[in-house]
Amino acid sequence: MKKPFFKSAWRIFFKYFSQGLLYLLPIGVTVFILLAVFQKLDSLIEFKTPGLGILTLVLFITFTGILGSLLISSPIFTYVTKLIEKTPVVKIIYNSIKDLLSVFVGSKKKFTEPVIVKLSENFDLEQIGFITQTDLTDLGIEKDKVSVYIPYSFSFMGTIYIVPSKNVKIIKASPQDALKFIVSGGFSNKYEAEEKE
Q: Which of 129, 114, 109, 112 is nearest to 196 (CA)?
C-alpha cells in the first residue's frame, strides 16, 4: 500500500516542481544574464558608485556614434576605412563585425522584413526567416533567387537558404516578433504569422 502512495506523492511533487521550473527558469536566466552583463560592463570602468561605470560606457559609445556620424564623410575617416579594408586579415575581421552589427543596428538594418519560405515544391514545408540579399548575381546565382536567413529555435545561430523568389512571401509581423517566435520554438503567443495579401 505504501508504494502506490509513494508513487502518487512523487508524481504530484514532480508535477509542481516542473511547473515551478517553468515559471522561475526563464525569469531566473534572464535576470542572471542581465546581472552578469551589467557587472561585466560596470567592471570595465572602475568607479566606487555602482552603475556609474556602465553609464559612462553608454555615454562614451553614444558620443562616439555622434562623432562618427559627423566625421563619416571626412577625408580622415575615409582614408582610415580604406586602409583597414586593404589590410588582408584585418579586412576580414572588420567587415565581418561591421556586417554583423548592420544586421541589428544602424540605418541599414537587414532583419527588417520577415518572410515565410516554402522549402520544397513537393511538400507543404515552410519556415519563417529574413531576406538578406535579393541580388546574388555576384555569386553566379540566377536573378530570380534570393538568400533567406533562417534562425534556429532556442538559439541565435541559423543557416542561409537560397530559394526562388516565388517561394518567399512577406508576412504581417515585426522583425522582433518574428525572431521571438522562431527562437522560442514557436511557443511565443504574441505573434500571428499572417501572409500579406
A: 114
Q: Which sign does the torsion angle of CA 12, 18, 23, 24 carry?
A: positive
Grouping H, G, I as helix, E, B as strand and the rest as coil, residue 130 is: strand
Helix (H, G, I), strand (E, B) or coil at 116: strand
Tens digits of residue pLDDT in 15-49: 777 666 655 666 677 667 777 777 777 676 666 66
pTM above 0.85, yes or no: no
What is residue 42's three-state secondary structure?
A: helix
**How many H-runs (helices) and E-runs (strands) does the chain carry?**
5, 5
Question: Cα–Cα distance between 164 and 161 in angstroms, integer?
Answer: 10
Q: How long is the chain? A: 197
Residue 89, burial from CB neighbour count under 10 angstroms (0-12, 13-18, 19+)? exposed
Nearest to 196 by CA among 176, 178, 170, 177: 170
Distance CA 74, CA 86 (A): 19
